[in-house]
Design brief:
Length: 185
């Protein structure tokens, strides 16, 4: 349905994630942190007390701080038949973080941050060249002058799930990537 919106209106804007999701995450983090605090108050000692302190530090402090930092970033993704663009809205205006035309997108894959199997997967656009403030340097093969291109990682909190975003970007790439024209013979 969203792919048809790009064709019909010429643009699809996927806004930032809702605040309710973040409030829910904060509440859950504080509840788990409070569980660690209750464990200490009830007189835990030894290894259990150490685990309770770790739970308080991780779920009561670290995760909420990361969640608030991530929520303050106001991103939206714009998809058009010509290009994909990630924009960050700041108090000073809008800043294009990434911009790439579909013709330079080689493939759409996923990336996992960290080497743990439970680490989340994020959609990645492998592009020949991109523009924007978040542009990463080109990847090169080890001990080879061959250039592989850049990665455009979509790990920002958006109003769609990661899997919906992956499906949408993959379908848009397949539909809008310029195809070589057949020669008339």
């Amino acid at each position: 349905m969203r792919l048809e919106a790009i064709e019909e209106y010429g643009r699809l804007v996927i806004g930032p994630a809702s605040t309710i999701k973040y409030i829910g995450r904060l509440v859950v983090c504080f509840l788990i942190g409070a569980l660690g605090l209750v464990t200490l108050i009830l007189g835990a000692d030894g290894f259990v007390a150490l685990c309770a302190v770790a739970v308080i530090a991780i779920f009561g402090i670290w995760f909420p701080v990361l969640t608030v930092k991530r929520n303050r970033r106001n991103y939206h993704l714009e998809l058009t038949p010509e290009a994909v663009e990630l924009i960050q809205v700041t108090p000073d205006g809008e800043d294009t973080v990434h911009h790439a035309t579909w013709s330079v997108v080689d493939s759409v894959t996923t990336a996992r941050f960290g080497n743990r199997p439970e680490a989340p997967l994020y959609p990645v656009l492998n592009v020949e060249s991109a523009s924007g403030s978040g542009r990463r340097t080109k990847r090169r093969a080890f001990l080879s002058p061959e250039v592989y291109g850049e990665k455009f990682i979509l790990d920002q909190p958006l109003e769609v799930t990661t899997w919906e975003l992956l499906d949408l970007v993959t379908a848009a790439h397949q539909k809008f990537k310029s195809k070589p024209e057949a020669s008339d013979q």
